[in-house]
Structure formats: structure tokens, C-alpha cells
Amino acid sequence: MWQADIETMGRGAIRALQEERFQNAWKHIWDNAPAQRKLLLDAGVEQNGIRSLDDVHTLPFTDKKAFTKHYPFGLFAVPQGDVVRLHSTSGTTSKPSMGGYTAGDMQHWKDLVARFCAMAGVTKNDTAHIAFGFGMFTGGFGLNYGLEHMGVRVLPMGSGQTEKQLMMMRDMGSTVLVATPSYALYLSEAVREAGVKGDLKLRVGLFGGEGHTPEMAAQIEESLGIVATSNYGLCELGGPGLSGECLERGGMHIAEDHYWCEIIDPDTGKVLPEGETGELVVTPLTREALPLIRYRTKDITKLTYEPCACGRTHARMSPTLGRSDDMLIIRGVNVFPSQIESVLIRQEHIGPHYMLLVRREGVMDTLEVQVELTDGSVLESFQLLEKIRETIREQIRNILGLTVKVTLVAPQTVERFMGKARRIIDERGK
Ligand code: ZN
Fold this sequence. Notes:
The chain has 430 residues and is an alpha/beta fold. The protein folds into 2 domains: 1-323, 3-Layer(aba) Sandwich (Rossmann fold); 328-426, ANL, C-terminal domain (GMP Synthetase, Chain A, domain 3, 2-Layer Sandwich), CATH 3.30.300.30. The protein is 31% helix and 24% strand. It has helices at residues 4-7, 11-32, 34-42, 64-69, 103-119, 138-149, 162-171, 181-194, 214-224, 337-344, 382-400; strands at 85-88, 98-101, 127-130, 153-155, 176-179, 204-207, 227-234, 239-245, 252-254, 259-264, 278-284, 295-301, 303-304, 316-317, 322-323, 328-330, 333-335, 350-361, 364-373, 405-409, 424-426. It has a 9-stranded mixed sheet with strand order 4-3-5-6-7-8-9-14-13. Helix 5 (103-119) crosses helix 6 (138-149), helix 8 runs parallel beside helix 9 and helix 10 crosses helix 11 (382-400). It is globular and about 70 Å long. The mean pLDDT is 94. The structure holds zinc ion. Zinc ion (ZN) is lined by residues 246, 248, 253, 308, 310, 312.
């Protein structure tokens, strides 16, 4: 373990540490973050109205809209002179959310990333191939800092140039692959086509930047011969390091000494009891540049505080089912792309590449699932095609209670993604 004394703390000691750190974070916001102070005052909250973490559930949320409204640095709690690093979200639909770090935040970041890398079995004797994008995205630099901090040999490859990636992976003897699950899948396909699996020394995958189903992880594991682990974080909350998976694979341990987590009903905002699935809401406890109160992540998950066989005592969050933003509502049914993915990925003759097309025909919403065959010759057998289509349709109907259209397409015709996948085309309202 990277920080065994903290990672195995008793639950009571974790709570006491969280309480102490929350008091500091709360005071820091009132003293140094005027825009956040105003948000609290406008909501009728007074500084001395909150005594402990037990009262946090009464506080208003912070969300992405607050970042947009106070773009770029309005939510910050330190002078810009104390900020040593800026990162941002991609901001495809609005202004990006700016994330910032003081020198102290950077120290914590390194340790938090090192913590989940060690959980996945990475040691200083490994060589890590980072195929995350470098740049404003927190993933590339975050993993770079954490791995280097552990003494791991790091290759900051970035994304793209797949042939060169394979060459370097082979020639450098890379043992750890850092990527989005979508890109890992793409790389695994390239490895298969080039027939170089036997030349690679990969053994661990550290996957983040987007969610993925256990079925997809299994597929990547098989084709690359690795153990795939997930990690999680958001730019607004300090990037990767919020949580990561240990080798017991029973969910991602949350760095509870740095983050206070709640699960809410995304519709009502009410806190849900332990074990129920809802939206993750996070209050960071140690961030200097950008402390926040109850940040809504939009990620759907659940928490468990049960002890883990690895010996770590920190709570675990289940792999995110998807972002509430990605959830499609089709004829009144809530649909997460991950639910469809879990059906597709266990079929024979079908590859893990798919697109979801949502349309409105008259007043009816329709969902078409386009999925790629692994073997083009199947296209010649009408009976087999029909059987595959019917199986997928039936299984999706069982899970979602929704009838969808299934289209099987030729191998290599569905778009591949170097970074985060964009598998939904929603043509309603256009
Ligand atoms: Zn564990």
C-alpha cells in the first residue's frame, strides 16, 4: 500500500479526520471564496449554522452551472499567484470548468494517484505507457505525476498514432497501460491485427476518464493479457485520485480522508441510504485552490462501507453506471448506454463497437442499436443474422422493457475513439 497508515485506518478514525478537515475547508470557503460564500448566504446558510459533517446534507449543491457562471476563476479560494497549475474540462457545449491546484494540492494529487496505482499492483519496477491525452485534461498529467512519484518508469505517449504506440509498448517493455477503456479496446484490436500480443509484457491496465462495463473490461483483459482496473476523478474535484480499484475488484476505494461523499436521488436531491444507487455528490476536504460544497458529479453509482478483503478500510463506489447526462429517456424508460453495452458484449459474432441512434418518428421515440459483426461472412447467412438480431432484441427487452431496432453492420465500420467514446447520436429535437 502507498499510504498504509491512512488506507487501513479504523472507521472511527477516518470519521474524526474527515470532521477535522471539513471544519478547515468550511472556514476556508467562508474566509477566502467570496462567490461561494455568496451562494451559501443566498441559500440562507450561515457559517455557524453548520456544526459538523452531519449537517452537510442540508447545504445547497454546487454544480457545473456554477463553474460556467463564475468562469474562469470565480469559485477559487486562493489568489491566482498561489495557483501553480490549471486544468479544464473539454467544454464541448459551454465554457469549460477550470480546475486549479496550489503547490500543496499538487502534493496531495501525486499521493492520491500513487495510492490507486499501488492498489492495482503497480510497483516501482514497472514501466507505464500513458496513452491518455496530455494537455488540459487531468488524466495524462495526473497519472504521470503519481506514477513518477512511485518511481515507476513513465512513457508519456499521449493518444493517437496507434502503430507507434504498439512499437514503443513492445520496445520499451511496457508493463502498465494507462488509457480510456475505449482507447484500450482500440489498441487491443490493433494488437490482435498486428499479431504482437506475444511480444508485449503488459500486465496491468489503469483505466479512467470514462466509465465502462465489467464485460468490456473482461474483453480488454483477454485480448491484452492484463488485469484491468478502474479509477475515477473529475477535473472540478482535482482530477484522477478520488477513487480507484484494488485487486479484489469489488468497487473503487474512495480517498475518504480527502473527499466526503454522498449519494442522492438525482431528481429530488434527497440523500439516499447506504447501498442505494444514485448520483455521487462530493465535498472535497483538503483542496486549497478550489474547495467546494456538495459538488454534483452527475455520475450514477452506489457506495459500500463493508470491509474489503484487501485490508483497506475506505468506502468503495461501484463502477459508474453512466453519467446522468448520458442517460437517455426513451418512451419514458431510463436507458444507460452501459446497460446496452453489457448485453452486446456477451454475444457471439458481435464486436464491442456500437452506436446508439435515437430518433423521433411522429410522437414515438425509437432507439436503433448499431453493432459491428466480428466476422463479415456472417452477413451471408440470413438465418444467422436474424437469430443474432432477435437474441439481442430479446435480451435488451428483458433488461429495459423496451423494444429496440438492432442493425448489424460489417466489421470495421463503426467509429473508433482515441479518447472518450461518443456512442450516442440523438436526433430528437433537431
Ligand atoms: Zn480493496
